[in-house]
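Course assignment 3, question 2. Fill in each field.
Student: A.L.
Task: Predict the tertiary structure for the chain below.
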Amino acid sequence: MMTQVVSKVAVVGSGISGAVCASTLAKNGVSVTLFESARGPGGRMSQRREMSEDGKELLFDHGAPFFTVNDSDDVMALVREWESRGLVNQWKDNFGSFDRISCKFLGIDKEGLNKKYVGMPGMNSICKAICHEPGVQSKFGVGIGKMEWLEHESLWSLTALDGQYLGCFKGVVASDKNIVSSRFTEVTGRPPPLDMDWAPELAVKLRDIPVLPCFSLMLAFAEPLSLIPVKGFSFRNSDVLSWAHCDSSKPGRSATSERWVLHSTVEYAKGVIKKTGLQKPSNVTLTEVAEDMFQEFQGAGLSSSQPFFRRAHRWGSAFPGASIAKEEKCVWDKKKRLAICGDFCVSPNIEGF
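Answer field:
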């Protein structure tokens, strides 16, 4: 293989961890190439664009609905910068919880204990902006198929899933835990991109990072759901639903329709995956999931009308179930200039980037 020394670092994954990392490296004079297998940035901060039957554009934050930051958090300075650039805003609506047994709302409050922030005009706006800052070259629709350490050149060689040679890099930062996960093999039938023989000292921590699957259901209604007194709430005592939020109530969103996003429980999602496998879910499966989730929502007395749009999406491994490097903040092989970072290192949420 022909190799050439390039003064670059590869960042794999354009979720909030990868995007912030790429931006920080670029601001410190490093030339960065960011690779993302999806069509756009964001990870679970992605925004989904759908079309209704009558041709209306519908936008949904179908992953993370918001993020919170304490005033003492290290990330507060970043959030203030994003606010000044118009990339984020506070979401100040009422939130609470809903008990499925009594079918009553509990604990309704004005803003909650922590300020809630959303991307403007979508959750992916933050990643979209910082993935295109000077010094960052972003390549979307490019999945990494193989990462190989070239001992004699002291470089990393990257190859795409389709076999295309992507170049050599002095360092690699991976914010996608699936590069070392057996789940990659279960989904693609191929070995994970990073052979842990290249980084044996990291293998123990990275081999099996637990993940929490989830289905989201995107709903659009012609009229407001007047039976719901809050714009976001968690479910208690439901086997199917864990969370719901009114996406169209967020600042900067279109109010031409009322759009809600529901999240399933982990147990419900695991049950579906146990029957259907980890491969991309079929339309039949997604239709059945959409029916289950909406019936639970409607059966709780939360909607007396039918949505004019309804579609389910599966998050197979986006939500981590553990933190593997709370103190170190990342997993790092200094000799090979390989870093693995993400919320699965610090805390399993957006602000854990």
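Instructor remarks: Residues 13 and 36 are 5 Å apart (CA to CA). The chain has two domains: 1-65+123-208+323-353, 90-122+211-320.
Grade: pending
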